[in-house]
Design a protein that fits this description.
Elements: H1 3-43, E1 46-49, E2 55-59, E3 65-70, H2 79-114, H3 118-121
Amino acid sequence: MDRWEREGLRSANFGIRNQVENILDALAEQRAHQAEVQRKLDTARCTATSADGLVEVTVDNSGVLIDVRFTADAARSTAEQLGRSVTEAGREAARRMREQTTQTLAPVAAAVHAMPDLPDLVLGAPSLRAPGEVESHHVQPHDHSQRWEGGGRPQ
């Protein structure tokens, strides 16, 4: 192995080490925010009122009903109408909860997406984002002979 090949390997090694360090830094940052995100998710609640105003429901972060409140007008309604009102308000509260959860997790998803995938580091490796698939947009090995002006090697 000549001097230029060794230098090329050192350069590639340095690049991979740098990417791994960036990944580890991103993971440490995510861990620091994980407790806050989990607390937000654990305490998240969404409330919605039926269109007829007879029922108000609250759901937890799983979309499970945790509270149902009826207005005074609900006493004059039929059981069928109240059932429809509870269902309508419950669906809307669950939809809002999914939306809130997506917003809460968006920074985490963005951070994960910004990190390099395994094929970015190891040529031909399977993607960790889509198991079973080999990524075709991996980082190509650098041709260090074209790194210097004029395409030649340094003297």
